[in-house]
Amino acid sequence: MSRKALIAANWKMYKTPAEAKAFIEAFLPLVAAHDRDEIAVFPSPVLLPGVVESLKGSAVAVGAQNIYFAEEGAFTGETSVLQLKAVGGTHTLIGHSERRQYFGETDEIVNKKLHTALKHGIVPVVCIGEVLEEREVGETADVLKRQLAGALAGITAEAAAPIVIAYEPVWAIGTGRTATPEMAVEAHKIIRAEAARLLNAEIAANMRILYGGSVKVDNCNSLIGQEEIDGALVGGASLKAESFAAIVKY
After folding, report:
1. Using an 8 Å Cβ cutoff, are 33 and 64 in contact?
2. Catalytic annotation, residues
3. What pLDDT is attached to residue 235?
4. Which of 21, 78, 143, 199 has its CA 20 to 30 A from that of 149?
């Protein structure tokens, strides 16, 4: 099964508008001829309009790091899917481990956001993954199955085609620790098998599952090169144009 890889940059709460523009000006020439993979950048909300403008005419997509499940309303501090679409965003992260850890996002909230993204044609990158304690006691598979089932509740196979899953071993995010290729492949196989059970085999076979957890220039090839791994969600290494371009061209 041929799945086009997605290499995604999660800038988290970094970069000013000027820094974002300078990144894009440096990055685009480095990947100008690259069409093997899809590329997406996820800046913080205040950067979205400027990043979309700077990337006009390129093949690089722009997404939000988070959306709210309501389309509008008195939800101070949130970004609506309608606002994202209005400024030209096409993707969104949902349920990133930092959203779960610091902002109390549950599987139920992730599910509501996923329904909203799909309703409005936004490509959702749904993040799931275990913490260190769960891995150490052998609960990785149970956690991945529970989070995936929670995220996909009420989603039909027909509606699920745009969904991208990002496997984030939480213990590897920002720690410098990385899952071995074998560990990552095992987790991806669990996710794909569960997606087949929840949706159907065809959808699962075509579903892109990214790896996210301290992806760097020196380990990206061994990870993204695996048949089960369909790209990467890159954090710190996506903040510099040269290192992110090198990962894109793994």
Report:
1. no
2. 96, 168
3. 96
4. 78
Residue tagged 């799931």 (tokens): 128
Amino acid at 185: V
| pLDDT band per the 50, 70, 90 thresholds, residue 176 | confident
Of 185, 181, 162, 178, which is closest to residue 215 (Cα–Cα)?
178
pLDDT band at 1 (very low <50, low <70, confident <90, very high): low
